[in-house]
Structures are given as C-alpha cells and as structure tokens.
Amino acid sequence: MTHKKFIKIIPLFLPALLLGEITVLDSIKIEEKIERKTNSIEIDLEKAEQNQVNSFTDMLKNNSSIEVGGGAINVQRVYLRGIESSNLNISLDGAKQGKNMFQHRSNELGINPDLLKVVDIKTSPDASKGSALAGSIEMTTKDAQDFVKGDKNYGAIFKTGYNTNGNVKHGNVIAYQVFNENIGAYVSISGVNSNNYKDGNGNEEIATAYHDRDYLFKLSMLDTKNHDLKLTINKNENSGDSRWAGTEYRPLASQLEKIVSSTTNYALSHNYNPSNLINLDTNLNLTDITLERKNANNINGNRTYENRNIGLKVQNHFDFDISSFKNRVSIGGEFQKEHGKGSFYINDLKIPDRNITKYSDLDSNNQALFIQNRTEIGSLGIDYGLRYDYYSFETGLGKQTDNTFSPNIGVDYSLTDNSLIYANYGKSSRMSGLIPFTWALNTKIDSSYSNDLNAEKSNRYEIGYKYNKKDTFVNDDYITFDANVFQTKINDFIVSKDTNCSSGKCGSGEGGWTLQDIYNRDDEFKSKGFELKTSYYYDIFSTSLAYTQIDTNNQASDITNTSNINEDQNIRRVGAYDSKKFVWNTEVELTNKLVAAYTLNAMAGTNVLDSSNNENVRGGYTTHDINMKYKLNSQWTLFAAVNNLTDKQYAKATTISTKNQANVYRYEMGRDFRFSVKYEF
After folding, report:
1. Are 428 and 401 in contact (CB under 8 A)?
2. Cβ contacts of residue 530 below 8 Å, gap of 6+?
3. What's 502-549 look like in SS3?
4. What confidence tens digit (pLDDT) does each residue in 390-447 have?
5. What is the DSSP annotation of 447-461?
6. Which residues contact 284 (CB under 8 A, 6 or more apart)?
7. Phi/psi at 317 (nearest 5 deg)?
C-alpha cells in the first residue's frame, strides 16, 4: 500500500469529482489477452460480489449498455443496446437459457452469481452462435480448481447475508475437492428468501416477494493428456405469489396464485487440443424449463407447462501461420431440438373458445453448419464467417420450414501501439418466434398458417475507436477509451393472431385466447445509438465512466390499426424505448484489507407507451450506491453496501404500465442496506 501514489493523482481527477452529478462512469475489467476484443462487454464478477448481487439481473445493472426493468424479479427483463434478451443467444456452460414462458413473466434466467467465472457479452455477429439476433451472453461456471488456495485440495465456503429492504435472507454453501492434479468436483446449495420490497416513498410493492433456490454440481477433468472434460448439473427454482393474468402494479390478494418456475441444465463439454491444428470443442446439453401454477385460479389442482431443449455443438479451431499471416479457422456444426407441452382444463379457456380449441405440443429444431475465421496481417485483423441454418417449426397449425445463410465480417486496424479502429457487420437468423411458449400450445381446430413462415432475421452494424495506454500521467497507470456507433435491425418477427376479433382486429393471444394464425410481422424493429466509455487505473485507485444513447422505433404494435395485434408486445419481447444512460464507478483500496466503491446511475426521462397506445413521459432518475469489502484474514470476509442511498422513488422506462392506467406502474426498490459474511476453510 502506497498512499503517496494515490495522492499524486488526486489533482488530475478533482474536476471530475466536483462535477460528479453530471458525469457518468462504467466498470471495465482489464484482462491480458492477445486477442483484440473490440465488441465484448465483460462483467466484473469480483465487484458484483462486493455489491452483494443476488440474481443474474442484479449483476448486470451497473453497465451503461444494459438496462433491467420490471421491478419484481419474476418480471425483470434484460435489454442489451435496446434489444430485449429473448433475442440474444444466452447460455450457461453451453446450455441454452432465456425462454419466454408466459406473457407477463420474464425470461427464465437464474443462477447464483457467486458460481460464475466468466460472463462474456458479445455484441458483434459470430457464425458459431446460433439464434443471436442481437448478440450473446455466455456464462461459464467455476471449476473446483478455481476454489483452491495454496496447497489445499479440499475445503468449503459458507456465505450468508441480510438485506433490510424486503427483509431478504440469503445463504450459500460450497464444498469442493480436487482429487489429484487434474480432477476436481464441487457442490453448491444456495437460497434467497425475500418479502415484498418497498419503493422510495415507503410503499410496499405487492407481489414482489419470492423464494429462490439454486443447486449445482460440477466435475472437471483438466489438462489430462490434452483433454479437458467438464460436467455441469444445475437447477434454479423461483417461486412466489403473483398474477397469472398480469403482474401489474399492486394487484389484489385475491388475484394472486403461487407460481413456481424452474430451469434445470445438464451440460457435458469436452476439449481435445494436442496441436495447433486440432483444438476440438464438443458440447452436449439439455435445458428443461417448467412452469407450475399451484391451485390455479383458486381451483384445486395444478397447471404445469414444460419446455425442453436438447443441443449438440461440435467445432474445431485450426491455428496456423502462412508467411506473415496469422490465422484461426473455426469449423463446426450445431443441432438444437425443442419440445414443449402443457396441462389444460376447459375452464382455463375463454367461453367462446371452449369448443374450438385444439391442444398441441410445440416442436422445433435447428440444424446448422458454420465457419468463422480470424486473420491477422501485421496491424490489420479480419474476422469473417458464414453460417447455414435449416429450421423446422411445428404447432397445432401445422409444420413450417426455412433455411438461411448468415455472413459476417469485421475488421480492426492498429493505428498506433495504443489505438485501433474497428468495424463489424453481420446477419443472423432464428425461427423460435416472439410467441410465449404457453400460448403456442392453444390453437384453433382445423386452422393453418395464412402464409409460409420465414425465419426471423437481423442485420447488425458497428464502427468504433479504441485506445489504451500505460504510463500516461504517472508511472504504471493505465487508461482506456472506447467510442462506437451501432445499429441493429430485426424483421420477419414470428407473431400470433387469436380469436378475440372485433372490428376486423384480433389479439395476439393475450388473456388466454386461442390462436388461429401464426405469421411474420411486416414491420422492422431498429435500435441504433452510440457509446462513450473511459476508465483509469492506478495502484489502489480505479474509476470509469460510460454513456450510452439508444434510439429505437418502438411503437405500439397496432398504432396504425392494421397489424391485427391489440397489445404492445415490443417492450415485452422485442426492445426498449429511447434511452440515455450514464454510469460512474469508482473504487479505492483504503488499506490492504479494506476496499470501498461508489456507483452513480443516471437515466434521462423518456417517452413510453401505455396499454392504450398513449405516449407519456416517464421521468428520469439518478441513484447512488456504495459498498465495502473488508478481509479480516484468509478465512473471513465482510461485505456491506447501501443501494439507492438517497431513497429515490423511480421506475424504469422498460417497466410496463398497468392496463389502461398510463401513470400507474411498479417502482423500483428504495434504500436497501446489505450485509453479508463469507467464511472459507
């Protein structure tokens, strides 16, 4: 610890500190890699633990490129550069995540953040990643070997904590053992119990209470005769009382029912790397998502819905040089098969639909071949790839097929040793649709698709400049700067039309109406914007700022009275409204045992649409969070944090208004004190 080094740089940042209320910063993690990453956002998991995050969505909030809205955990949705997360390729150790189960629920995304080793968010096209209309989020869990310290080969970690807002109690137990220099295993059990939280004005937000349970077992065999083999089994379960027919602002107690959702993942991955020309990755995975309504509609008996996805991906990386050309060629194939089913009762249906409804399973599959290359010629790097997808999609309306070719290209050029410019372009496709899984099981008898279905498609563009340098102001400091402009266009969305028709218009399935058609929307969703990010690191001090501005063409789906959809599905499953977001993160190591950090989140007000298609201004907000970590010794660590320090009452622009009440919506959590302790042996 050398406080003299910290004192030397204070004059350099005094103006920024004095203007903190109008500047914005973002956390950027430095990793020494030979790969030039121009389009990735990595989450600093160490800082996430210090901030005592309890969920996947909580882990993402302090990033200007990402927005999380919805308030209650079961309706929180993630938006990356303005695009909702069901349009991303999301995986946990290779197992597919993020299925839309029901209209008013969020995507099924659950994992104990303490178990994650890497969260890699990629915004550029990549032929090896299927169904990635707007990017990918790849989560990798820790191996048993990651817990080992010193010469220990086994141990346990206990962690428990309490949050004041919501009376949250959480705990986690990890037991691990490394059997020899190559093989290790661990098991983890964790849970969170939360009551309803209160907003910044002290009002209780009804139907925000939940129980979350997470179980994980992982076996890792590393570096054994050029082989790595990993097996992951994970189950996350979330339960709470909420409305099935909507989760709007403060529902009545009589409208609530217990809903339990669980995601079980099985992933087996293998890598064989005996030479530069053989680097073979194989991943076999299964994701099983279930949604259960306990005593649905206050009627004895449960309703259960299940969606299962089986995936296999095989690819080989060839690394070779030709003269001054450095090359990595990745060739592979992928297979995904989805099957969905549900349990139904005649009283679940609208009265006019009870004699015309057919219950059918949902089946879809995706077969793909791809090649993705990286070539470096001195200061120039070129990424280029091509993916071929064959799709089939089958519901009670029949079976549809389509195939697509998706090319991509990206270039980066080092202007100097410290700076580079980059640009990316690419296409992507999928054929899973926007329709919530449970809706697609109800179809009208003897109906069929009005037209052949096409796969959904996207076009992405990005251009930027990146700078990083050591020894800028003093010896051994490090500064980074990144500026980019981006645009994503998505078209041919697969949507539905139900039997609730009036004046020539029909709904999309909202309210449990039976579907009579599934078709491609004619309109195009577009998100464009720019980002400015910079950071500075020196000895015990780090600070970063970021600004992301996003403009979308989000509008009510039926604003022209021609789309046959009478509910705004864009904000739920397509994209967000316009936004301007600032984030400032700063951290100081006060002693060799104590670290303190501060985060400012500022969002400008924006126009949003209510359920009657009226445009309203949703106010902006600024929040302040502080947190500390104190390491008593090698075994004990204490954490303390205060989120929303000023007890601000605010709501995210991505939180949906209560039906027919434009200014009634769920507010986010008010001031929250968090305390936890971790013991390792």
Report:
1. no
2. 483, 484, 485, 486, 548, 549
3. ECCECCCCCCCCCEEEEEECCCCEEEEEEEEEEEEEECCEEEEEEEEE
4. 999 999 999 999 999 999 999 999 999 999 999 999 999 999 878 888 888 999 999 9
5. ---SS----EEEEEE
6. 267, 268, 269, 311, 312
7. -105, 125
What is the gyration radius of the CA atoms in the chain, in angstroms?
25
> 516-553 pLDDT, tens per residue?
999 998 889 999 999 999 999 999 999 999 999 999 98
Q: Write out pLDDT tens, residues 43-75.
A: 788 888 888 888 888 888 889 999 998 888 888
Beta strands per DSSP E along 295-324? 303-322
What backbone torsions phi and psi does residue 208 show, to the nearest 5 degrees?
-110, -5
How would you label 379-413 residue by residue, b for 16+ Cβ within 10 Å and e otherwise? eebbbbbbbebebbbbbbbeebebebebebebbbe
Which percentage of the chain shows pLDDT scores above 90? 63
pTM of the predicted structure, to 2 decimals = 0.90
Q: Could you tell me the CA-to-CA distances from 514 to 103, 307, 361, 550 in Å, in that order?
A: 14, 19, 14, 36
How deeply is 564 buried, as exposed, middle or buried, from its count of CB atoms within 10 A (0-12, 13-18, 19+)? Answer: buried
20/234 Cα distance (integer angstroms): 42
Q: Which amino acid appears at position 585 of this protein?
A: N
Chain position carrying tokens 């001195």 = 378
Q: Quick one: the chain helix, strand, coil %, rounded to 5?
A: 10, 55, 40
The pLDDT value recorded for residue 550 is 96
Q: What is the mean pLDDT of residues 149-176?
A: 94
Contact assessment for residue 590 and residue 627, using Cβ atoms and an 8 Å cutoff = no
Residue type, 180: N
Q: 518 and 432 in contact (C-beta within 8 Å)?
A: no
Give the pLDDT confidence of 215-270 residue by residue, as tens digits. 999 999 999 999 999 999 999 999 998 877 765 567 777 788 888 999 999 999 99
- What SS3 class is residue 221? strand
* Three-state DSSP class for residue 295: coil
User: CB–CB of 117/142 below 8 Å?
Assistant: yes
Nearest one of 575, 453, 622 to 21, comparing CA atoms? 622
- Which one-letter amino acid corresponds to residue 672? D
Contact 146, 218 (CB under 8 A): no
Q: What are phi and psi of 292, to 5 degrees?
A: -125, 130
Give me the sheet containing 66-69, strands edge to edge.
66-69, 77-80, 83-84
Pairwise CA distance, residues 469 & 490, whole Å: 37
